[in-house]
Amino acid sequence: MAFDKALLTILACPLCKGKLILNKDNQELVCRFDKLAYPVRENIPILLENESRELTSDELEEIKG
Q: How many domains does the chain have?
C-alpha cells in the first residue's frame, strides 16, 4: 500500500476525533478508542461509520500505536 503516512497527522476518527493508526496488513485505519477499523481503498481512506467494522479484542491487542 502506498498510503501517504503524512496524511495520518491530519486525519482523525470521524466519531471521537481521536488518532488513527495505519494497519498495513489489512489496509485499514484503526481507532483504538471506538474499536473500529476504516478501510483504505485505492490509497483513499473511507472514513464513514457505515463502512467501518468492529475490531475484536484480539485484533486490538495486535495493533500497536
A: 1
pTM: 0.89
Residues of the domain holding 41: 5-62
Whole-number mean pLDDT of the chain?
91
Query: Which residues make Cβ contacts (< 8 Å) with residue 63, sequence separation at least 6?
Result: 21, 23, 30, 32, 55
Contact call for residues 61 and 24 (beta carbons, < 8 A) = no
| In 1-63, alpha helices (H) | 57-62
Residue 32 buriedness (CB in 10 A; 0-12 / 13-18 / 19+): middle
